[in-house]
Each structure stands twice: as C-alpha cells, then as structure tokens.
Amino acid sequence: MRHRAAGRRGWLAAPGRGGTVDITQLILDDHHEQRRLFAILEQIGRTDTGVLSAVWARLGSFLELHAAAEEAIFYPALLKVGLAAGRTAGVEGETLDAIRDHNDIRDSVEEVARHEPGSDGWFAAIAAANLANSDHMAEEEREGLTDFRRLAGLQERHDLAVAFTAFQARNFAGVPAVDKDPEAYIRQAEQQLRPAPGSLNIGSLKGQ
User: Fold this and answer.
1) Angle subtended by helix axes 120-142 and 49-69, to nearest 10
2) What count of other Cβ atoms lies within 10 Å of the Cβ of residue 9?
3) What span, in angstroms and rounded, lies between the C-alpha atoms of 198 and 70?
4) How far is the C-alpha of 9 from the C-alpha of 151, rounded, in Å?
5) Domains of the chain listed by start with CATH number
6) Residue 74: exposure state from Cβ atoms within 10 A (0-12, 13-18, ≥19)
C-alpha cells in the first residue's frame, strides 16, 4: 500500500515495502538544508558567537561532505549516462564547472576560518561562501540534475541514491577538504568508464 508523504517528496512506498529513492531528490534535499543553515546564520545575533560557531561548523562540514559525495557518486554517473547518450561535451562541461565550483566553495570555507566568529570579516566571508554555494546549486539544479533525470532511468537513480546515502552516513564525522583538478577528475572518471586505449575524449574542453 502507498501513502502520500509530506511536502515535495511525493509518493513513497510504505515503510518496509521497498520502493525507490532518487539521487537527484537527495541532492535537492541537501541544497535545501544548506540554504536553511545559511539563513539561520543571518538571524543569529553577532554576540552569540558560540551558536554562530556551532552552526557554521555544522554547515562548513556539510558543504564538504555534500561535495565529496557528489564527486564520488553523482558526477561519475552523469559522465557515464552522457557518454552513452552522445552528450559527452555537455556533461563534461557541467562536471568541469561543478568541480571548479566545489574548489571555490572550499576556498570560501577556509576564508571563514581566518576571522573571529561574529566579526564583520567573518560575516563577509560567510556571505561570500553563501554566494559561491548558491551560484553552484542554481547551476547544478538547472543543468546537471535536469540532464540526469532525462538521461538516467529511475532504477539507476535509486541505486545511486542508496550509494549517496551510504557515503554520507559512513563519513558523517566529515571528510578532508581537498581541491580537485577538474580536468584530471574527468580523465580519471572516464578512464574508469571507458578503459579501452584511446577512448578518452575531452578535446572539446581544451578551449574552456
């Protein structure tokens, strides 16, 4: 028997009866939580530095865990379905942009750590991190997530959602923040997808 879940999650199977989850929805849920935490920071008083620090510690760790989960699970899958559909240049470009954005977000998180919580510089760095993350989320929602829903079947999206959830659960305490070389990331992902010699093709990206 099915029941109507609350809000935007739509129809879900009753507990214990199977059903599906969708990685694109999980990513959107993470985006919603990130926006919520940034909004909360804007509403906490400057002198309440203990709360500001605690909320930012949670958010900063979450931003990196989300990026790492996308890099481990989602973007290799986007490249795979793009290659299969003859959309190589499109999905490579989206992936390049995403990895560059993740690096920018990591840099903005590091900048926050250089300032005292509650100071003008701290709030300015928080605003810069919010802007970098907001731009990334908006682009990802317009492009990568939309393309993936069009190119990948529901069963694949479900299997990836399970893997995405497992990655985040296993790394709940956080992951190291390490910048990625965007083109090297794509090369490695495509080598794993297409191991035959000469199969790598990112020539369309050289001018970007």
Assistant:
1) 30
2) 13
3) 27
4) 21
5) 21-195 (1.20.120)
6) buried
For the whole model, what pTM was predicted? 0.82
Alpha-carbon torsion (84, 180, 30, 36), positive or negative: negative
Identify the helix (H) or strand (E) that includes residue 27.
helix 23-42
Measure the CA–CA gap between 163 and 115, rounded to whole angstroms.
36
Query: Nearest to residue 54, comparing CAs of 62, 129, 120, 108?
Result: 62
Q: What is the pLDDT of residues 45-92, one digit of tens each?
A: 999 999 999 999 999 999 999 999 999 999 999 999 999 999 889 999
Q: Are 71 and 102 in contact, with CB atoms under 8 Å apart?
A: yes
Enumerate residues 6+ apart whose C-beta is below 8 A from 2.
Answer: 11, 12, 13, 14
Contacts 24+ apart (CB under 8 A), 200-206: 201/88, 202/92, 204/88, 204/89, 204/92, 204/93, 205/89, 205/92, 205/93, 205/96
Residue 156 CA to residue 91 CA, distance in Å, equals: 17
